[in-house]
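Please fill in the sequence for the structure shown.

STRUCTURE ENCODING:
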């Protein structure tokens, strides 16, 4: 999703080291990282059920985390995938130089996403700092607004105006959303405090847009429109936060409280390496299966195909039908595709969910998102102008078509990549009807206005790579972002994995995937909802959590999202 602390006031000051922040979601501050690290594991199912097949729909990160952990419990996950292993962790390769990659979906992962990094560490994947605006890994940043260009190698190089914008934002979240207090509680993992603050804020914040929140804050009212506009253009994020202005302020608070917008790392070799590695990894210990068993080996190498129907079969089982007709019955099914697909692309039997849950599914609001990459001969942007001493081209935030330009390289004198444009919502829709070459032409034209003396096109090798996630029938959008008044829907979706109160005919199907989490658009939400579904399946089969390691469902009533009704 969004990112970077471009205008985080902290970048202007030196602060004492503090306890790290985790993506401990205030709606449900359950420590998934500690749950995963527990030596007793996640739990067990009755041994006579070992080898039982469980359907997992979607081989994105959520589906693979769920399948991997179900396999460790001794169950036999059967993964279905309509397209590629990895889902929205998709890495494209430039054909003439396959080592040069472009992350079309998730590309930068906050250090606070500790459940996500559990799997990164487990799989031994190398990461390094992502070159966000004004981040230490970014040698220079250009902010260009209304035709005025600011060049900065450190935040201190920016005019005082930007500091004022950052301070207005910090004051707005401190006054209106108890930001510092919440971060202190998150650092201390003080769940009682986190819940107390959040539950008090929730009912009023659920009614507000992000824009309404900042425009009604004292700090931004005093500062004036120009500050608000600059905040929207640059924000603390890349591509500008103004495309998020219509969304619920709750969505933004969850991100900034937990530091999800900062301290980002990329996966060396591409983000898709994570789901691919999970698919091939043989856990060091697991119930039932012989040493060396992996998801790949259980599937003879490939997941099953696209799912066309989910229904109720005889004896309470669920039946999954593939697009080409094969039907298989399962005692439990985990769905991880974007929730809209359950009514648009999969014929899901209506009685499997309560009407209110269907409403929550249909009300999901997805952001559009587009990215366009080109490969270039070398990181020529590091060449310095002999007169000014400035780099030829910088990580760029602009109010022109491109919105955000990222520069990615693997060292000098090697092919490198320019992400010419990363956009959301209206800015992404501007690209939807255009092909890759036309997109690139327009992007280069915009950049020419910012860098008149730089011939970017002369460095491009081969064809551009572009994506519009909303145009892909297996996704239909980039990631979910709740609108004001949507909290109730999110609460229903998130808590559905605990099914003891559900009627018998609605049990056994578990929703997962980042759009079911409270932090859609972040891979951490994909991991954690996958783990919720594993807990749900385990309980559904009569199993239980490991002694001393209470799982998400065991703590949901105590720590879970409150009901506003
Ligand atoms: C443009 C963009 C930028 C992002 N940036 C970041 C970022 O920087 N940091 C971050 O942490 N996160 C980011 N994200 C979010 C991150 O990519 C997601 O949170 C994560 O990949 C979601 O995983 P998932 O398994 O929940 O869903 P998905 O990856 O969507 O997996 C669902 C799978 O279901 C499959 N499927 C669909 N229909 C069917 C069917 N009928 N039968 C079988 N399979 C089906 C799909 O093909 C897909 O593989 C970004 C996402 C996008 C789109």
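FILLED IN BY: designer on duty
SEQUENCE:
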């Amino acid at each position: 999703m969004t990112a970077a602390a471009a205008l985080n006031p902290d970048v202007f000051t030196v602060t004492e080291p503090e306890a790290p922040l985790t993506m401990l979601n205030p709606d449900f501050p359950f420590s998934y990282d500690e749950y995963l690290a527990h030596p007793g594991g996640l739990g067990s199912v009755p041994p006579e059920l070992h080898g039982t097949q469980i359907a997992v729909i979607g081989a994105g990160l959520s589906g693979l985390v769920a399948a991997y952990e179900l396999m460790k419990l001794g169950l036999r996950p059967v993964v279905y995938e309509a397209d590629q292993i990895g889902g929205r962790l998709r890495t494209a390769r430039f054909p003439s130089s396959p080592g040069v990659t472009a992350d079309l979906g998730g590309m930068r992962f906050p250090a606070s996403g500790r459940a996500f990094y559990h799997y990164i560490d487990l799989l031994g994947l190398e990461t390094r700092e992502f070159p966000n605006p004004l981040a230490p890994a970014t040698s220079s940043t250009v902010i260009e607004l209304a035709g005025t260009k600011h060049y900065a190698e450190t935040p201190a190089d920016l005019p005082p105006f930007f500091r004022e914008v950052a301070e207005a934002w910090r004051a707005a979240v401190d006054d209106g959303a108890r930001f510092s207090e919440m971060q202190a509680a998150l650092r201390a993992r003080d769940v009682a405090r986190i819940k107390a603050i959040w539950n008090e804020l929730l009912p009023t914040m659920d009614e507000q847009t992000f824009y309404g929140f900042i425009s009604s804050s004292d700090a931004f009212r005093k500062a004036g429109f120009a500050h608000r506009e600059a905040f929207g253009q640059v924000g603390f994020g890349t591509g500008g936060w103004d495309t998020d202005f219509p969304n619920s302020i709750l969505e933004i608070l969850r991100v900034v409280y937990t530091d999800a917008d900062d301290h980002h790392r990329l996966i060396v070799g591409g983000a898709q390496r994570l789901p691919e590695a999970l698919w091939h990894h043989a856990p060091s210990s697991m119930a039932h299966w012989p040493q060396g068993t992996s998801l790949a080996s259980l599937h003879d190498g490939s997941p099953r195909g696209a799912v066309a129907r989910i229904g109720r079969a005889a004896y309470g089982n669920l039946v999954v039908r593939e697009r080409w007709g094969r039907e298989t019955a399962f005692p439990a099914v985990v769905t991880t595709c974007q929730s809209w697909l359950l009514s648009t692309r999969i014929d899901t039997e209506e009685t499997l969910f309560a009407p209110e849950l269907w409403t929550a599914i249909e009300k999901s609001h997805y952001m559009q998102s587009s990215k366009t990459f080109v490969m270039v001969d070398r990181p020529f942007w590091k060449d310095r102008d002999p007169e000014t001493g400035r780099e030829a081209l910088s990580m760029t935030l602009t109010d022109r078509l491109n919105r955000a330009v990222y520069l990615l390289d693997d060292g000098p004198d090697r092919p490198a990549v320019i992400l010419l444009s990363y956009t959301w919502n209206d800015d992404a829709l501007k690209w939807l009807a255009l092909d890759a070459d036309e997109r690139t032409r327009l992007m280069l034209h915009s950049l020419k206005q910012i860098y008149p003396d730089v011939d970017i096109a002369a460095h491009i090798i081969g064809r551009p790579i572009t994506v519009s996630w909303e145009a892909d029938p297996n996704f239909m959008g980039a990631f979910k972002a709740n609108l004001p008044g949507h909290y109730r829907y999110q609460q229903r979706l998130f808590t559905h994995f605990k099914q003891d109160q559900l009627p018998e005919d609605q049990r056994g199907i578990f929703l997962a995937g980042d759009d079911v989490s409270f932090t859609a658009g972040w891979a951490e939400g994909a991991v954690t909802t996958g783990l919720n579904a594993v807990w749900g399946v385990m309980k559904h089969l009569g199993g239980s959590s490991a002694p001393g390691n209470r799982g998400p469902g065991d703590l949901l009533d105590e720590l879970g999202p409150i009901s506003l009704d």
